[in-house]
Design brief:
single chain; DNA polymerase, domain 1; 2 domains; 6-stranded parallel beta sheet; 45% helix
Length: 221
């Protein structure tokens, strides 16, 4: 079937998850990058662990818990820094090519949207801060279900919203595990591999691998 829509993961794909620590790098100190990496790792770990147990806490709360762990791990007992990092996370920078890529897809006649683990309020804050709302047709959150990716039911939020078949949707993510979930569901997944990481999940491959969002416009899918 012909492609009708391009749906994007939010955090790490459209929005730079390390932008929050970058704004407060001096205050975070020499472990700033390791704090940011651990913050992200724990944030995702909590989503998978809770989903496997049949439990749910929204992404905003898990983001707070993950930051608390990361700060404690590196001995940063600084409540003001914590508050500022969380405030910055709500207004993450979009990658430089995100808005132009979304605009080009809409102008080409495709529906566009976000499917994210993020809580609705978090997503809206990031969308408003980066001014990309005008080039998005759909913003879908797992909060409507009460569990996280990569459950098939999460990806089905897209097909329900679009009244489309999975094969009519290109799903774009920088997270290889998310690409595996999208492939398993039947989407046409495109992996944004900015860090040039080795591949994994060999039975659930992307249809294409790119190094930037702007490369989407030259793909033949």
């Amino acid at each position: 079937m012909a492609v009708r829509a391009y749906i994007f993961d939010a955090y790490g794909t459209l929005f730079d998850v390390h932008a929050a620590i970058a704004r407060h790098r001096d205050r975070a100190g020499p472990d700033a990058d390791r704090i940011s990496d651990l913050w992200r790792t724990k944030q995702l770990e909590y989503t998978w662990t809770l989903t496997a147990m049949g439990r749910y806490e929204n992404f905003e709360r898990l983001t707070e818990r993950a930051l608390d762990f990361a700060l404690a791990r590196f001995g940063k007992n600084d409540s003001a820094l914590r508050a500022d990092l969380l405030a910055s996370y709500r207004k993450l920078d979009a990658f430089a090519d995100a808005k132009d890529t979304l605009r080009a897809l809409k102008q080409a006649g495709f529906a566009t949207g976000i499917l994210s683990n993020g809580s609705p309020g978090m997503l809206q804050a990031a969308i408003d801060a980066s001014a990309i709302g005008g080039v998005l047709d759909h913003v879908l959150s797992v909060d409507a279900l009460g569990f996280y990716k990569p459950r098939n039911e999460v990806y089905a939020l897209v097909t329900k919203a679009l009244a489309a078949q999975p094969s009519e949707t290109v799903f774009v993510s920088s997270n290889r595990w998310d690409i595996a979930g999208a492939a398993n569901f039947g989407f046409k997944p495109v992996w944004v591999n900015r860090a040039k990481l080795p591949d994994e999940y060999p039975d659930m491959k992307p249809v294409a691998v790119i190094e930037s969002l702007s490369a989407l416009s030259s793909l033949k899918i």
